[in-house]
Structure formats: structure tokens, C-alpha cells
Hints:
The chain is mainly alpha-helical. The chain has helices at residues 6-12, 16-39, 41-49, 59-64, 70-84, 95-123, 126-149, 155-168, 172-183, 189-196, 199-214, 221-240, 286-317, 321-349, 352-370, 378-408, 419-445, 450-467, 469-477. The termini are far apart.
Amino acid sequence: MAPVPPGIRLLVSFNRDQWYRALTFILTFLLYTSFHLSRKPISIVKSELHRNCSHVSELPTIGSSSGRSDSQKLLLQALHTEMDCSWKPFDKSNYKQLLGAMDYSFLCAYAVGMYLSGIIGERLPIRLYLTVGMLASGLFTCLFGLGYIYNIHSLGFYVFVQVANGLVQTTGWPSVVTCIGNWFGKGRRGFIMGIWNSHTSVGNILGSLIAGYWVSSNWGLSFIIPGLIIAVMGVVCFLFLIEHPNDLKNLYNDGCSPGKSVPTKTWNGVRGHTEMYLHYKDKKNQGVIEFSLCLLFAKLVSYTFLFWLPLYITKAAHLDAKKAGDLSTLFDVGGIIGGIFAGVISDKLGKRATTCAVMLLLAAPTLYGFSMISELGLGPTIGVLLVCGGLVNGPYALITTAVSADLGTHKSLKGNARALSTVTAIIDGTGSVGAAIGPLLAGVLSAGGWDQVFYMLMTADFFALLLLLRLVTKELRSTKSRPISSVQLKEH
């Protein structure tokens, strides 16, 4: 009899519970990757919507020798601008404000919708809720690209599509965090969710590469392809997503339902810690408030980079849209590393707030260094992008995943796992207010120079750090950590 291959031995070493847990981990990772993949194209296409048309000013000089009138010269210049340069209505001198308004439309709708989404998601089957949201998001993402195909130049059309897409995309985050929180215990949650949260950066990277491939030839496809991808993933969600281990009970009659074991299993944390440790006053939900407000400023910084980094690189480093988009992915690579690092350190120390605060403190000087990117060579630029991405996205990733899940599975919720959707939506919804404000401010401030944008980002980092100081002080003064389960999150 031939020996069993080592690969098969590895496969059968995992029990049924572990396979379903792995399926949920991978599937929710891919689902939210597709959400961010569909958000990224707008930042890549911005440099194509308004191209560098400075050479157009040479047309009157060229035409002067031919005896054309001034009105004819101006007409030729306008036609050249329309055909060869920018895409109406973003061909005006206030194009940065118009592009910022598009970002604001999406993010403001996302922020408002997030508060409602958690409540709705708590009352509907998550699999169906998420499927509908992904199909709708695919539709509106494709519609933006069809604006190029059908030569649409109405600002109202693009703003409407952005608002609609912002609303339907709120179905994603509360749903996937609820699923992952239902399947995974609290032990080593920071490390596990740090890895899982890399879907954000992976989605941004893939979105940049896909959009960058078509941006110079047919920017409509930069939206249509991601739109089709998220729609297909919505179908995959409908077919395979398991919201909770208990949902499998009806499939098994042998007394070995996965639902009996998964909810009670946890991993042993470092030094025996199996729960997250935070230090709040009892019977107060100040931890939720402070982390939510901190996330407001942290997400302001992160989303400003998400929507404006490729355009900044195009203008500062004088690169074309594709090269700028490719280079901007290094920021997201750094974000993956930063998110995992923040999770590992906070698990080991049992201090989530302190971990976030240290990274925010280091982010400010790094942002200043990044503002000088146009004066640096390619090598230093790559290094700064990686470090900046890690320090900016690390705290953001930790708060939106491990912290949200810990607070959302608090014992005061009395075992209502679906309430995690509401808690997650409250935290991320508050953060999304900052995500809406940041790109809008960037559009306004960049008109006076990019230095003003970076000063704004450094100020936001400072406020995010300031909001965590009370929690950090308590963590550092405490001689004995108390588990999150002792925190009371009762409603006032």
C-alpha cells in the first residue's frame, strides 16, 4: 500500500470547524477586497480627468502667422483643450474643488449611510444584505465608467453616481466584521484581524493596477472592470457566506455541529492573555467614544491618501497616471505591514490605545518627510511611502477591526452577536465623517499648494493622538490589566 501524500495528511489534519473558519476568513477577505478595489479607480482617473494642458497656451502664437482673428484663436484653443486635454466638466481652473466634491459626495453618503447600515444589518440576513449591496455597488461603479463610453459631461451625473455608490457600499464593513467576529474568538484577535484587515490595502493595490492599465487609453474601463468584479463577488457571497457557526446546525445530525464548538474556542494569547486589555471607567462607554473620535481623524488622513495620492505623485514627481498609480500602491503595501504589526504588538502588550498612540506620534514627522517627495530620489521615495503607509494605516486598521470586535462582543450585549454590526457601524461611521472631510479639505487646500494639505494631515494626526491620551495614561499607570469583558457598555 502506497503512503499517503504529505499534502493530503496536512489537509485531513484539520477538522470540520477549522475548515469552515478558514472559508469564512478567506471569503470575507475577498469580499471586502472587492469593495476597496471598486473605490480606488477614482483616485487613479483624476489625473486623466484633468490633464496638464499648459501646452495649449502656445496655440495663439502658432496661429498668429496665419492671420486668424483673436476670436478664432480662442475657439481653437477651447476646442484643443476639450479634445486633447481634460474631460468636461473637470476642465475648469477649479478642477481640484470639483474632484474634491466628487470625493465628498461619496464619503458623506458613506458616513451617513453607515449609521443606518449597522442597524439595518442587525435585522436582516447578512448574506442577503451584503449580496444586494455588492450587486448595487457593481452597478453604480460601472455607471461611472459608462460616462466615458457615452460621452457624459454632466457633473450632476457623476455626483449622483458617487452618492448612490457611497450609500450601498455601507453594507460591506458591518457585515464582514460581524461574520468574522462570530467565527473567531478574542485570543490573538489583534494578530488575526491585522492579517485579515490587509484586504483594504490589497483592494487598493489591485484597484490601482486595474485602473492604471486602462486609465490612459479608456478610463471608462477603469471603473467598469472593478464594477463587474464586485458584482461577481456578490454572487459568490450569496452562494457561500455562512454568517454564524450556528447556521450549520441543521446540516448535521451527528451531534458534532460546528456551532457547538466554534463560539467557545479561543486561541491562547501571548503570556496567557486570551482577551484584549483596555482601561476605562466602569459603567461608561468612553472607550467607544474616544476610539470613534480618534478614528475620525485617523481615517481622515488615510482616505486623503486613498483619493489624492496618485494625483499628488503625478504633479510632484511629474509621472504619468499609470506610473503614479503603480507607485502609490507602495503606500498600501506599507499599510498591510503596519496593520499586522499593530495587531501583534497590541496583543503582546495588551494595550490597544498605547499602540495606536505611538504609531500616530511617529506618523507626523513621516508625513512631513513625505511632503518633500518631489525632492527625493526614487529609492528614498519608496522607503518613505512604505513607512508612511504603515504608520498611517496601522492605527486605523487596529481600531476598525480588533477594537471594534472586542467592544462589539462585550458581555453586556448578552450574547447578541448581531449587535456587533451596530457597534462596528457606530465606530466606523464616526471615522467615515473624517474620511468625508479629508479629501474635501485636500481639494480646497491644494489650490494654495500641497504643503497646506500635509500640514492639515499632520494636524489631524495630532488630534487623533490627543483623543487617546486619557486611555494611554490609564494603560501605562495600571499595574494589573483588566479584560475588555469587565468594561460596561450600557446605554445611558
